[in-house]
Amino acid sequence: MPKFSYIGRTKEGIKDTGLLEAANQDEAVAILQRKGLVITSIVQYDISFVVEEQKKKGLAFGKGKVKSFKHEGANSGDLVIFARQLAMLLGAGVSLMKSLDVIGRQIESHKLHSAVTEITKDMESGRTFRDSLAKHKSIFSELWLYLIETGEASGNLPMVLGHLADYLEDRQAFKTKIVSALIYPCILFVVAIGAVMFFVIRIVPTFTSILTSMNVELPMPTKILIAISNTLRKRFLLIVLIIIGIVSLIRNSMKTDSTRSYIERIQIGLPVIGNFFRFMMIESFSTTMSILIESGVPIIYALDISERSQPNKIMREIIGNIKINVREGKSFSIPLEKTGFFPPMVIQMISTGEEIGELSGMFKRIAKYYQDYLSAFVARLTSIFEPVMILFMGVIIGSMVISIFLPIFSLATASGR
Fold first, then answer.
1. Taking burial as the number of CB atoms within 10 A of a residue's CB, which of 78, 160, 281, 377 is the most buried?
2. In whole angstroms, what is the distance from residue 406 CA to residue 417 CA?
């Protein structure tokens, strides 16, 4: 007998969703109407297409079968798909348990699949969806937990998950755009360093033996180049270990709040690129606040979640101060202005958003503005980087070539006399 997923409301206006078995759609509507439900949506639900798709992909599942996975970890792409599929199934009236079962059959990440399996078992034992997710904080962030909690409390879990999926997709697209723009400069930089290292380690020693056999007085630039070459060849491993040690020391020191705050203040104080780091913080804050407020999270809780989800120490301190002021009943824009961190445009837009009751929409516009700005900034920076790197290679390699040939020029000049 076919199944039908439905969305309806009781006489008291309470939303009711689920699955129902009936001979046809008319019979399903009649059954629900006898229960006193007003039907707003009803569609036939059949997961056979999921099974067929899994078979086409070569994925087997079920008792005694082994499911294959494309990768081990759970990346941002997996979470986007999970949130989007869950929002669509719940919006179609499919129960949460059934939705998790259907999605679990299609997950390509081993880690996420294991988590969803455990979440389903925890919910069967009586846990809420939010508490079940909380056991897997390495996959689901604080933002996930608070949004799910809000969706469960308000009865709008499909809408909240839809907003979450939009947020994750926007963040992933923005990060992909930035990373893609930086790939070419990074490759060019590595090639430049590799070319210089090859010249110093392999080419310079050959010329050194020739110059030594000539018994000529070497100019200072030549002596410096030969000394650098000898040091790199004889103590290359030691130098690599020292660099690794310095990097490890910096990474460990970044774990302390005082060091991280100091480095972040240096970053935002740098000329030209200082605003890049500052605007990245503002964009991240605006995007998070937009999704939280749009999903129905109160301002104080939204600020609290945003504060804990920020990776930057400076931004967490600023949001903490804003939260204290807002809790005291002050306008949102006033503490923003006091920080001196936010541009006047941001403060004005948030002030306007408060007045017209469109705070979420204003945060979304601010986030979009800075995403476009940062993308354009990176594009301009990469276009400048190529000629700068070519000039750098020309100056460095040219200087080394001149240093090598200076003794030869001196010898030729002396012979001419």
1. 160
2. 17
- Residues 344, 210 share a domain: yes
The answer as to whether 164 is a domain residue is: no
Q: How confident is the model at residue 242, as a pLDDT?
A: 92
Judgement on whether residues 178 and 313 belong to the same structural domain of the protein? yes
pLDDT in tens, 39-88: 666 766 554 444 444 444 444 344 444 456 777 777 888 888 888 888 88
* Three-state DSSP class for residue 268: helix
Q: What is the pLDDT of residue 55?
A: 45
In a domain, 147, yes or no: no
Examine the fold and report which residue of 366, 387, 411 is the final residue of a domain before the chain moves on. 366
**Domain range spanning residue 185?**
172-366
- Nearest to 279, CA basis, from 234, 345, 227: 345
Q: b or e along 283-312 (b: 16 or more beta carbons within 10 Å of the residue's beta carbon)?
A: bbbbbbbbbbbbbbbebeebbbbbbebbeb
Residue pair 21/15 in contact by the 8 Å Cβ criterion: no
Please name the residues in contact with 258: beta carbons below 8 A apart, sequence gap of 6 or more: none
Domains: count for the chain: 2
